[in-house]
Amino acid sequence: MREDREREPWQLDQWNGAIQWYLNWLRACEEAHVDHRSLPERLRAAVVSAGSRLGHARRTKQCYGAWLARYGAFAKNDRAAMEVETATRFLTSVVDDEDCAYSTQKQALNALALFFKQVCGVENPRFGVKLRKTGARIPVVLSKEETQQVITKLEEPTKVPKKTDGKYGLPARLQYGAGLRRSELVRLRIKDIDLDRGTLTIRQAKGDKDRVTLLPKSLQKEIAGQIEQARSIWQEDRKAGLAGAHIKGALGRKFSQAAESFEWF
Hints:
This protein is mainly alpha-helical. The protein has helices at residues 9-31, 39-54, 58-75, 78-81, 84-97, 102-119, 144-155, 169-178, 182-186, 217-240, 249-254; strands spanning 193-194, 199-202, 211-214. It is extended. The model has no long low-confidence stretch (mean pLDDT 89).
């Protein structure tokens, strides 16, 4: 319910009826001991669970889960989804009809192989599909001047002033200058920045590896200012009794007080 938008009574009645119907349906599924999730949802959950048991990276599990959801929509029913022949027809359609890269075809193959081995218990599934090699393509990249124009646009105020005006200029220049992936950029913590040495430490990068990269000299002064801005936010969190930083998994359990420290902000 948004205060700035009025709702008509018939809309509220319609939403109430739809939600009530959905809750009744969930209750009926529970009483009949039937899984309420669709086949694509169940296949996605099954392969994500299997990937977790094998220690796959989060992005790998997401990718394989997306392929299994597509496969579930293709198979249409449980029995067909568990047949290698159905998977062969799905892979054939991916190779012949979608004109996708060889690496994409290999992703689909690996996702289905994981599903049949770890979920269906098929020891050595043979799909009988020959993947099509694709030629190398020259990537389209921006020149240095074009990149600077894009970053300048990020720093310009919009016609209608917003709180985010100027917010993305420094992160964009840091990502470009230090050669960071987006996920690496947003996961940076205070302790990962060494202004004295002019370096950044990237934690749990691709392949779950750490690495050290250079912090551009032209950004060191602005980064130092950004750290002080972060310090003021951290101090407000401390006064409000908030943890301040999120630390997931075993690391968060091991260093239970680290979420409150400025170094982990």
